[in-house]
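Sharing in case it's useful to others searching the archive later.

Someone asked me privately for the predicted structure of DUF7848 domain-containing protein, so I'm posting the question and my answer publicly. Question first, with the sequence:
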Amino acid sequence: MTRAVLRCVPHTIRHAPEGGVTYEAFCVAEGCGAESGAHDEQEGPQDWALRHAGRTGHDLFRRVFTDHARVSRDT
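And my answer, the predicted structure tokens:
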């Protein structure tokens, strides 16, 4: 019978600025499904949501902010 030795090695996860952030907005009105697409700046999806609301009367949106993270071993 063999035995495995497991050890806990602490790690930290942090935002990686070089990866940037992506912003998106999705209309959640029933049956709509429209979306802004991914943008590097927050203003793009915000402007899209405002225009979409003005054209359709839809008033509920899901906003998604995606970043990149780097995991590093604690010393």
